[in-house]
Design brief:
Blueprint: E1 13-17, H1 26-37, E2 46-50, H2 56-64, E3 69-72, H3 80-94, E4 101-105, H4 112-118, E5 123-128, H5 132-151, E6 158-163, H6 174-179, E7 185-187, H7 195-198, H8 205-210, H9 214-232, H10 235-241
Parallel strand pairs: 1-4, 1-5, 2-3, 2-4, 5-6, 6-7
The structure holds adenosine-5'-triphosphate and magnesium ion.
């Protein structure tokens, strides 16, 4: 995968990280994806747009990876109109900067205007655990995305479900795949339930770097290489352009 670094990316990509459900790992995934991609491409070509008033991604990345661009554009009922159009403008501008990637961390909640914005992306990463308490709202979220896509007759964004906080040793995702089989989604590589990630926001970020976190490094590295191949190098487009669309593939592992 490292050999790809010299390849020219075909177009800019906007990646939204979203789910109606809170606490599923949207901000953590946004942060770790940005960090992982920064090892594969120039960090100045990566922009994280933090639309969550909680500023999780902004605070973390400004300390851990100041070389990655971060834009804080909170989307809350009070700022909704202005900042939604700012994020929209940003996504549009990015299209003219080949090789650029925008990762948009979004807040939990179910604003239709936010969904319409998310639907303008190239892909949506949808983190969820395997518990019903998360899968049920996740399915509803996928349905709302499907509706927006159908309304505008679009094949984008690609929807990628990201199994998160997965118990160690779990290799079987058939229950999840079965549950999502009527939706047009792909299942990405699983991220395990990792103690180092659970304590991600405790203490100093610098210390997190020093902790032994090989499991976290393994999982997020794998996730980064999945995004590089399937999103940045458009492998998903190739899969989708074939007549027989495979659904619910677990491309890695
Ligand atoms: N793979 C993981 N293993 C263990 N803990 C995790 C994992 N991913 C996320 N967490 C933990 O779950 C909690 C919620 O994560 P995070 O803040 O990223 O979720 P979120 O979806 O952004 O939440 P919100 O809806 O509040 O924005 C955090 O304490 C985080 O450390
Ligand atoms: Mg968050």
């Amino acid at each position: 995968m490292g050999a790809n670094k010299s390849k020219i990316l075909t177009g800019a990509k906007s990646i939204f990280v979203a789910n109606v459900k809170g606490g599923v790992g949207k901000s953590t995934l946004s942060i770790m994806l940005a960090r992982s991609l920064a090892e594969r491409m120039p960090a100045q070509n990566i922009t994280v747009i933090d639309t969550d008033l909680q500023r999780t991604a902004t605070e973390f990345l400004s300390k851990s990876n100041p070389e990655i661009n971060v834009e804080f554009l909170p989307i809350t009922p009070a700022f909704e109109n202005t900042n939604i159009s700012l994020v929209q403008q940003f996504i549009k501008q990015i299209e003219f900067r080949p090789g650029h990637v925008a990762i948009v961390d979004t807040p939990a909640g179910s604003s239709q205007r936010l969904w319409n914005l998310v639907a303008e992306g190239y892909c949506v990463l949808i983190p969820t655990t395997l518990s019903n308490a998360d899968l049920y709202p996740t399915e509803n979220f996928i349905r709302s995305m499907d509706k927006v896509k159908a309304r505008y007759n679009k094949s984008y964004p690609h929807l990628i479900v990201c199994p998160n906080k997965i118990p160690f040793g779990q290799k079987d995702f058939t229950v999840m795949a079965e549950r999502l089989k009527n939706h047009d989604v792909v299942i990405g590589p699983p991220l395990r339930d990792l103690a180092s990630v659970r304590h991600f926001y405790n203490g100093k970020i610098e210390n997190w770097e020093k902790k032994t976190n090989t499991n976290a490094q393994t999982d997020f590295k794998q996730f980064g290489s999945f995004i590089e191949k399937f999103v940045l190098y458009e492998e998903l487009d190739k899969i989708y352009s074939k007549n027989n669309i495979p659904r619910n593939v677990v491309p890695i592992r």
